[in-house]
Specification:
Blueprint lengths: L2 E9 L5 H11 L17 H6 L6 E9 L3 E9 L7 H8 L4 E7 L6 H12 L3 E7 L8 H12 L7 E2 L8 H11 L12 E10 L3 E10 L2 E2 L3 E4 L4 E4 L2 E5 L3 E4 L1 E2 L4 E5 L13 E4 L7 H5 L13 E7 L5 H14 L4 E7 L3 E8 L2 H15 L3 E3 L3 E2 L1 E5 L19 E3 L11 E16 L3 H10 L3 E7 L4 E9 H5 L2 H8 L5 E11 L2 E8 L2 E2 L5 E4 L3 H15 L7 E10 L6 E10 L15 H21 L7 H7 L2
The chain binds guanosine-5'-triphosphate and magnesium ion.
Length: about 625
């Protein structure tokens, strides 16, 4: 039995988790010097471009403690952005301890708190690390005090490091060995492992990232996926170095990967338990007893329709979503058909960044050209004519007799609605106290309710608010940042559902409703929103050969004798002009008129056939209404 320590690195976004991981990889000689690069564990192209971590990333290191005993250190680097919290919580279940990194120039921030509480809930040993002490702006005494107040540790428990220069990082390795508990050894039990992540490999097929809890797993082992009730035979096992490296066996308490050999992608689910099939157990009940706790299902917060520009790509989109779901367990989707956009999927996301990343990944990794509708939160509707449609996207089962809608198209017309409920969140804002006033104003502007204030240190506070989810989704975070000169940070979670006066706002381009641009707005803001969207669309939409009318409209009906709706704003994009008379010089004026007449007719025809392609910026314009 070898010495093992399993831990993850958690922090607020950009506090230096991945950079600290770089130094640990260097000190343990896990990665050759010439192969080293900044934030090595951010392997996805998108992560490198944006400088943020999106996916959890495990890596195994060998460490010679005080130049004698060797330890296997299994590290999991996690993302800091609130949209990827599910990655953090899954990582926490696979380890015994966490490095809580706090940027010494910034202090404790909203996701520092959120992630710390998640780790404490899991019963993990917390090692506080103050990072970026090389920067002149760092304030070690002040931030140390705040950390001590928060987790009740002593000054000497806090490690001071610079992940950039490497100062103090050796001490981190020692602390990992000394403080993080050795995983319990359970010897003679049946082999089983927790799946904390998965992905699809073009050559190997479905791979599960696992933490072995008991016994061991090796190639050719017959295994059972307890939750999915699927049998399979393991093809290969190995470790992360951080690239995958084949091994003979994954031992008890180790972290590694398993090439599962499952035929159906959906048989491998995160949170499920893989158990070795051994002579003694063969009944379903026997397995059930072996199931590990798993994870709470995540609740998507925003929903958008994803459709292919080319209808024939539908099958490819379906398969791509399936594969993407393996690497991103928080993605949910179900088929959707739209008159205007054809077949596609209604997808649920944890936030707008999540949506953006999924869209980008579908485009880059799967080469799909997509139309994504304007995202919306899920509303609950009580209506006279309510027919309950599919509610799969909502992880929550009890909606109290309300019908859940995930898209503006599903919102019934005003006359048919008794009540609409919208999701509210509990939001925590961490900020230096001088910005209290401006933040308060911003929250009120966004229909928020102030709850209370807690002091984190002498000059920084946590403000607790309740806000409609729809009002923080789009630009609340940007506005918060600019109001506080970049200092305030935000964390939120869904709280409950409350009544809302809303209606659908349709956009007509060339007299045709553009389904992807429809939104749900507060009734008292419909005018303002409609005007603003029309104005910005006027700037964004490309000029056509014919004149294009843009209209915002409420209560729109696409058919029947009341076809049309109430137009609340409109604008015109003039046609591009081609001087058809240029070739004429002098001569007869009727000839000129004839040409112009011909052009006019042509344009009329074009207009009736013409479809205006909506560029991607248009969707953002609608969101930022
Ligand atoms: N000066 C200085 N800069 C640092 C230090 N550690 C990290 N940085 C910088 O801080 C920025 C963020 O670092 P990352 O390691 O990507 O932060 P992260 O916590 O992994 O970020 P997310 O994974 O996106 O949450 C990068 O520009 C790093 O170069 C440090 O000790 N000193
Ligand atoms: Mg990172």
């Amino acid at each position: 039995m070898r010495n093992i320590r399993n831990f993850c690195i958690i922090a607020h976004i950009d506090h230096g988790k991945s950079t600290l991981a770089d130094r640990l990889l260097e000190l343990t000689h896990t990665v050759e010097k010439r192969k080293m690069k900044a934030q090595l564990l951010d392997q996805m192209e998108l992560e490198r471009e944006r400088g943020i971590t999106i996916k959890l990333q495990p890596v195994r290191m060998l460490y010679q403690y005080k130049n004698s005993q060797e330890y296997i250190l299994n590290l999991i680097d996690t993302p800091g952005h609130v949209d990827f919290t599910y990655e953090v919580s899954r990582s926490l279940a696979a380890v015994e301890g966490a490095l809580l990194v706090v940027d010494a120039t910034q202090g404790i921030q909203a996701q520092t708190l959120a992630n710390l509480y998640l780790a404490i809930d899991q019963g993990l040993e917390i090692i506080p690390v103050l990072n970026k002490i090389d920067l002149p702006a760092s304030d070690v005494p002040k931030v140390s005090q705040a950390v001590m107040d928060l987790i009740g540790c002593k000054q000497e428990d806090i490690l001071l490091v610079s992940a950039k220069t490497g100062e103090g990082v050796e001490k981190v390795l020692e602390a990992i060995v000394e403080k993080i508990p050795e995983p319990v050894s359970k010897k003679s039990e049946i082999g089983r492992a927790l799946i904390f992540d998965s992905r699809f490999d073009d050559y190997k097929g479905v791979m599960a990232y696992v933490r072995v809890m008991n016994g061991s797993l090796a190639a050719d082992d017959k295994v059972y996926f307890i939750g999915a009730k699927a049998k399979s035979e393991i093809v290969e096992v190995g470790y992360f170095t951080p690239v995958i490296k084949k091994a003979d066996k994954l031992n008890e308490n180790e972290i590694g990967y398993v090439v599962t050999g499952v035929k159906h992608i959906e048989d491998c689910r995160v949170g499920d338990t893989i158990a070795k099939i051994q002579g003694a157990i063969n009944k379903e009940q026997d397995y059930k007893k072996l199931a590990l706790a798993g994870y709470k299902e995540v609740r998507p917060m925003v929903f958008a329709g994803i459709f292919c520009k080319e209808g024939s790509d539908y099958q490819h989109l379906r398969e791509s979503l399936e594969k993407l779901k393996l690497t991103d367990a928080s993605l949910v989707y179900e088929p959707e058909a739209s008159a205007a956009l054809g077949f596609g999927f209604r997808c649920g996301f944890l936030g707008l960044l999540h949506l953006e990343i999924i869209q980008e990944r579908l485009h880059r990794e799967y080469d799909l050209d997509l139309i994504v509708t304007v995202p919306s939160v899920a509303y609950r509707i009580k209506s006279q004519k309510s027919k309950i449609t599919s509610q799969k996207l909502e992880a929550e089962s009890n909606t109290g007799g309300y019908r859940v809608i995930h898209s503006p198209q599903e919102l019934p017309n005003a006359g048919e609605i008794e009540e609409v409920l919208e999701p509210w969140v509990k939001a925590d804002v961490v900020t230096p106290k001088e910005y209290l006033g401006v933040i308060m104003e911003l929250v009120q502007d966004k229909r928020g309710l102030y709850k209370n204030t807690e002091f984190l240190s002498q000059d920084s506070v946590i403000l607790h608010y309740e806000l409609p989810l729809s009002s923080i989704l789009v630009d609340f975070y940007d506005k918060l940042k600019s109001a506080s000169k970049g200092y305030a940070t935000l964390n939120y979670e869904i709280a409950d559902y409350r009544p809302a006066e809303v209606e659908r706002l349709d956009l007509l381009v060339a007299e045709e409703p553009v389904e992807a641009l429809a939104t749900i707005v507060y009734k008292d803001q419909a005018y303002k929103a409609g005007k603003k969207i029309v104005e910005s669309l006027k700037k964004i939409l490309p000029r056509q050969m014919f004149e294009v009318k843009i209209q915002a409209c409420t209560n729109y009906q696409n058919s029947g004798k009341n076809k049309g709706g109430k137009i609340i704003a409109s604008a015109k994009i003039p046609a591009m002009r081609k001087d058809v008379t240029a070739k004429l010089y002098g001569g007869d004026v009727t000839r000129k008129r004839k040409l112009l007449e011909k052009q006019k007719k042509g344009k009329k025809k074009m207009k009736s056939l013409g479809r205006v392609d909506i560029p991607a910026e248009a969707y953002m314009a609608v969101l930022k209404k």
